[in-house]
Amino acid sequence: MEIIKDRFRAKAAAASAEIKEMLKEHGSKPIGEVTLAQVYQGMRGITGLVTETSLLDAQEGIRFRGYSIPELQQKLPKAQNGGNEPLPEGLFYLMLIGELPTDADVDHLTSVLMRRSHVPKHVFDTINALPLNTHPMTMFVTAIMALQTESHFARAYAKGINKKDYWEHLFEDAMDLIARLPRIAAYVYRRKYKNAEHIQPDGLLDWAGNLAHMMGYEDPSFYELMRLYMTIHADHEGGNVSAHATHLVGSALSDPYLAFAAGMNGLAGPLHGLANQEVIKWIFEMREALGTELPSKEQIATYVQDTLASGKVVPGYGHAVLRKTDPRFSAQMEFGKKHMPDDPLVQTVWNIYETVPGILQSLGKVKNPWPNVDAHSGALLVHYGLVEYEFYTVLFGVSRALGVLASLCWDRALGLAIERPKSVTTELVKDWLGGKAEIWGDTQ
Ligand SMILES: CC(=O)SCCNC(=O)CCNC(=O)[C@H](O)C(C)(C)COP(=O)(O)OP(=O)(O)OC[C@H]1O[C@@H](n2cnc3c(N)ncnc32)[C@H](O)[C@@H]1OP(=O)(O)O
Ligand SMILES: O=C([O-])CC(=O)C(=O)O
Fold first, then answer.
1. Which of 82, 278, 298, 343 is packed most tightly, with the most Cβ within 10 A?
2. Domain range 1-24+54-271+388-444, its CATH number among 3.90.1170.40, 1.10.150.170, 1.10.580.10, 3.30.1360.70
3. DSSP assignment of 135-148, as one string?
């Protein structure tokens, strides 16, 4: 039995008992009011979910179990050969268990993931059956679905299991899936862009380092970037599209492969995770239109105005919850200053940062004019030669697995219910406004 599962069992049992008591005493306490506008506008600001792994503050940004990104960069274990960036395995441990891991905990987790990382041949055959022009996110999700044959949870459920034991089987799937994703992502990358010349995993490397290695990158600072990237993209509390979709589908007791694939289909949307590809595409198009590698701030401003005038969003800017510069953007900016301060593409990202917020602010309707995580990531990747921007969201997805699958373990361990909010028709809303109907659902 792996130590991490025993620790999770103990933590989840204690939390479950505490929540039961809390609900017994306070379950009928109102938590807020909902306006009609919120119902029509993406439920923004409605508290309706519990997610233990991280919490987002509109001003400060994300905290994972209470720790900010700079704190994690300081406190999480690093790669042994002089690494400076946190190992994402450590973040996974923190999100799952709720405590900072020791170096030994992370070492153990790395070896557990390595041991579970085998991907069956039919998954590769499934990827190979897709036409080469398939988007990498479609290949990635298709491979995850093909891997569903391996679900312990689905097998156990078909045989018949006690509700109390759901999480035990789900946990196995979550660990297996996280272990296998770097291999799948690297396979997609090399099939689509590197002549299908695949690279075997290196049993001595950490989870993110191995991903870099299997993709064919050998620069140690790219390994460091992957460790940082996989850490900062992992979780963003529960209401974002990928986390919410995973949670929602998992609430029907669809196994973790099915639930995670649903989350990844959401991540593939341009207003969510696909924005990282859109950002770099937009910058490349701008450079081409202006005929320069390093557009001036005035040129950028004009290009932004043109983008807005054509009815498009400026990718990488704005956020549904955040109201300041995303600390994930700042962490990447720090990385850029340290490793590639003179790179013209990275400098362009910084010049855009000085130009766009003022313009968006002047529109008067954009609630957050500041950059999000996706505004920066692509430029760092291009620096190391990873220019195939359609692949970027796959990297985001590998990282996001850590948060949403840790959360799924919590969902089942806490016995959370199938998600099923009430919806209404506009017809009913009009009747309600006219005093002819009630609108609330059964709250019991
Ligand atoms: C990992 C992530 O998912 S981070 C987000 C990645 N997505 C992007 O970067 C895409 C660009 N940004 C956006 O489209 C939005 O800011 C979102 C989707 C992130 C948030 O959406 P919302 O919460 O609805 O934003 P908000 O309440 O500020 O929107 C109000 C108006 O401002 C517009 N707006 C918001 N951001 C931008 C932007 N970057 N460029 C232009 N207009 C924008 C909205 O489209 C909306 O316009 P409308 O009233 O004409 O429909
Ligand atoms: O929180 C959100 O809605 C989007 C986001 O930044 C993420 O999921 O990382």
1. 278
2. 1.10.580.10
3. -HHHHHHHHHHHGG
